[in-house]
Amino acid sequence: MSGGIDSTVSALMLHNQGYEVVGITMKTWDYAHSGGGKKETGCCNLDSFNDARQAAVDHGFPHYVLDIRDEFGDFVINNFVEEYIAGRTPNPCVLCNTHIKWKALLKRANALNCDFIATGHYVKVRNENERYILSKAKDLTKDQSYVLWGLEQDCLSRSIYPLGDLLKTEVRQLAFDMGYTELSKKAESYEICFVPDNDYRGFLKRRIPELEHQVNGGDFVLTDGTKVGNHKGYPFYTIGQRKGLDIALGKPMFVTAIRPETNTIVLGEAHELEQNKMTVSGLNFVKYANLPDGIEAVTKIRYKDPGALSTLTNIENGIQVSFHHSVNSIAPGQSAVMYEDDDVLAGGIILRGQ
Q1: Per-residue model confidence as pLDDT tens digits over 200-216
Q2: Fewer beta carbons within 10 angstroms: which end of the chain, N or C?
Q3: The predicted structure's pLDDT at residue 190
């Protein structure tokens, strides 16, 4: 229970259905430690904790705060920093869901003799052919299957998602009908919990004070190697970036490649961002125990990506995704999630585009 509308409504729905509910709020991060200038927001502030606790008190079920700051920091934040230093673009929410939150919840569920864990994510899970299959929510504008691709079968088998068959508008109405008028109007947070000011560059600089001096002044180059200017450090740029380059070349230019070994940023025109193949590693198979070679799937390369038709080929330590039409801005480090209709076939981390 984050204190937000989705997890609160989920808990109350299950409570009303007769489940014995135990509320858990996870403390992942103290924003004050990051040195940012914005007030702590999102899921890890005291107001949210109090909102979650009050909902539990109102309905007579226990509530606990689970402190996972050390584990979260060591794993998620260190990976976040290391990926940018390696010239990749990480997705910390995927990593947190896969390796931290569900494992922490299952551990506490076992200690409390709970059969299931439930969250306010907009996804569905069903059991079919001896597999627990993750699929898209009814509300496709809120669907979160992309960030949950890493959940393995033991996690999916014990997960309940009460909002999978509801629209967000229906969830807001439920909150209102349950007497939570203010909660029904509560704005949503899309920020990374440990970077609530959305300034990941500032976070990196505060995390590694010497970083800016080590990487500042590298070269902007064109695809043919022609130097056209200087940048502020390769970790502070992402594939597809156009704004904030502080360079004028007479036409729109984009970051097409990041080369950390030489502190070089490659710039190109929009068409140079288009690729039709990529390699994906670190796979988690969801719908099938093994991916059928040559299967067609719709592959998403970022959260808001509508997905593109592709053919999947098994290779050593991963799969090759061949898009039927070129896609834009494949970013190493981001997640790739492959779908068969609404079902998640598999997901993994983009190793490189081709």
Answers
A1: 889 999 888 888 888 88
A2: C
A3: 67
Task: Round to whole Å and give the CA distance between 18 and 188.
Answer: 28
Separation CA 245–CA 239 (nearest Å):
12
Q: Is 262 helix (H, G, I), strand (E, B) or coil?
A: helix
Selection from 194, 203, 198, 204 nearest residue 28 by Cα: 194
- Short-list 43, 137, 52, CA closest to 93: 43
Give CA 265 to chain center in angstroms: 25
The residues assigned a catalytic role are 96, 193
Which tokens hold the place of 291? Answer: 């991916």
> Is-contact 80 73, C-beta < 8 A?
no
- CATH code matching the domain that covers 274-353, chosen among 3.40.640.10, 3.20.110.10, 1.10.286.20, 2.40.30.10: 2.40.30.10
CA distance 133 to 157: 9
pLDDT band at 274 (very low <50, low <70, confident <90, very high): very high
The tokens for 108 are: 């506490």
- pTM of the prediction? 0.91
Report the pLDDT value the prediction gives residue 215, as an integer from 0 to 100.
Answer: 87
Is residue 37 within 8 Å of 151, Cβ to Cβ? no
Cβ–Cβ < 8 Å for 44, 68: no
